[in-house]
UniProtKB/TrEMBL annotation:
Keywords: Cytoplasm, Methyltransferase, rRNA processing, Transferase
CDD domains on file: AdoMet_MTases
Listed GO CC annotations: cytosol
Coiled-coil ranges from the UniProt annotation: none
Gene3D superfamilies in alphabetical order: Vaccinia Virus protein VP39
Entry EC number(s): 2.1.1.170
Protein name per the record: Ribosomal RNA small subunit methyltransferase G
Organism for this UniProt entry: bioreactor metagenome
GO MF entries: rRNA (guanine-N7-)-methyltransferase activity
Length: 249
């Protein structure tokens, strides 16, 4: 008997995710699609319960931290817009609606964490950036099958993704020590924006951050980075996220 639906449902409940019936249905369809495409496309190195725990729930586990960061970045974006000389925040029909921050998932692979997050955050716009054509084919299919109207698929290298970006997130991606890559990403990040990096052990994350001290551009903001522990339901492995904010103008 396949216990994946029950496992995912319990995981969503534990994480406090709302609208679970529709979310559960969509995520289970996504899991089935990964398992169908995986033998040919090599999307993830997991199946069944491992796929649910190590990829879907792992992607969703820090959602509250991300929501808090989104609110913070919304305020920063609004502040930057209001501060631009000559730019009106009042339209012909009254005050303009505040601009909402967009999330850019670089090196998304099978759509992780972007697709699971887009399912539980339907009012947020997501850009999924992936350099491999066969994976973008899979992602485009999922956008249609899962009716992900808040998702845009972009084929290309992460460092060439056109900015400016509000929040850049990544999971199972390259380490911060690849300075050339992260300087490009940082340059494309909006003032008041942030990096949201899924990492494993906090100790290893601290070592990565310490290595940024050699770069004159990245040293100061990365020295102020936050490391937040993350608990993934049913996973007995350490997880954390690293949040690096870009100063406002």
């Amino acid at each position: 008997m396949d216990e994946s639906p029950s496992l995912l449902e319990r995981g969503l409940s534990t994480l406090g995710i709302q609208g679970r019936d529709q979310v559960l249905e969509t995520l289970l369809r996504y899991v089935r699609e990964i398992e169908v495409w995986n033998p040919t496309y090599g999307l993830v190195n997991a199946a069944g319960q491992d796929l649910i725990i190590k990829h879907i729930l792992d992607s969703l586990a820090p959602w509250r931290l991300l929501e808090e960061l989104l609110i913070e970045c919304d305020q920063a974006v609004a502040g930057n817009a209001a501060g631009k000389a000559g730019e009106s925040i009042v339209g012909p029909d009254g005050p303009k609606s505040p601009e909402r921050s967009t999330l850019t998932d670089i090196g998304t692979g099978a759509g992780l964490p972007g697709i699971p997050l887009s399912v539980i955050m339907p009012t947020r716009k997501f850009k999924l950036v992936e350099r491999m054509g066969k994976r973008t084919t899979f992602l485009e299919s999922q956008k249609t099958i899962l009716s992900l109207n808040n998702v845009e698929i972009i084929e290309g290298e992460a460092e060439r993704a056109v900015g400016p970006h509000d929040i850049v997130l990544f999971r199972a991606f390259r380490p911060f020590s690849e300075l050339k890559l992260f300087k490009s990403i940082w340059k494309a990040l909006k003032p008041g924006g942030a990096l949201f990096a899924y990492k494993g052990k906090q100790f290893n994350a601290k070592l990565e951050l310490a290595g940024m001290a050699v770069d004159p551009v990245l040293a100061a903001p990365f020295a102020q980075a936050q490391i937040q522990p993350v608990w993934v339901p049913f996973l007995e492995e350490e997880r954390c996220v690293v949040i690096v904010r870009k100063p406002r103008l």
